[in-house]
Amino acid sequence: MKLSLRARTQPEVNLTSLIDVVLLLLIFFMVSTSFVKQSQINISLPQADNSSIVEEPPEQIDIMITATGTYLVNGRELINNRAATIRNALQKVAAGRNNLPLTISADADARHQHVVTAMDVAGRLGFTQISIATVNDPGE
After folding, report:
1. Are strands 61-65 and 102-106 parallel, antiparallel or unpaired?
2. In angstroms, what CA-CA distances link 81 with 28, 60, 117?
3. Mean per-residue pLDDT for 80-109?
4. Does residue 79 lie within any of the structural domains?
């Protein structure tokens, strides 16, 4: 018996179905993409005049007390530490708005009397939202 070997044929990959799928995906993405036309509006923006600067009233009042007893109201140092001076500075900064939050922050070496004086003056002027700022000790 004589056996003959058949010639091996190389397998062929049919690319027709792959091309069909790619074209269908291309058509799908082209149809589903929305093209939005952005409208363009010409706007003439106003120019700011630098000649007049309006100082806006603060949203919060800060009283800082140094170790030597010097008072600073919103970063401005007062000429002395009398209660009348503190009262005038608070009235000027608050401009009649006693509902603003007021924060008192004092140095660790400041006298307790200076903090009490600031709280007393603020209370007499009608401030009700008074808070004392503290700092956590990082060593704890």
Report:
1. parallel
2. 79, 21, 9
3. 86
4. yes
- Report the b/e string of 13-37 with b at 16+ CB within 10 A: eeeeeeeeeeeeeeeeeeeeeeeee
Question: Burial level of 137, CB count in 10 A (0-12/13-18/19+)?
Answer: exposed
Task: Give me 99's structure tokens.
Answer: 């509902």
Q: Give the chain's domain count.
A: 1
The CATH number that applies at residue 109 is 3.30.420.270
CA-CA-CA-CA torsion sign (66, 72, 75, 79): negative
76 closest CA partner among 68, 84, 85 = 85
Please give the residue range of the domain that contains residue 78: 61-132
39: confidence class by pLDDT, cuts 50, 70, 90 = low
Half-sphere exposure of 46 (CA within 13 A, CB side): 3
Taking only the tens place, the pLDDT of each residue in 6-30 is 777 777 878 888 899 999 999 998 8
CA nearest to 92, candidates 53, 129, 55, 130: 55
Which amino acid type is present at position 109?
Answer: D
pTM, to two decimals? 0.55
Q: Does 138 fall in a domain?
A: no
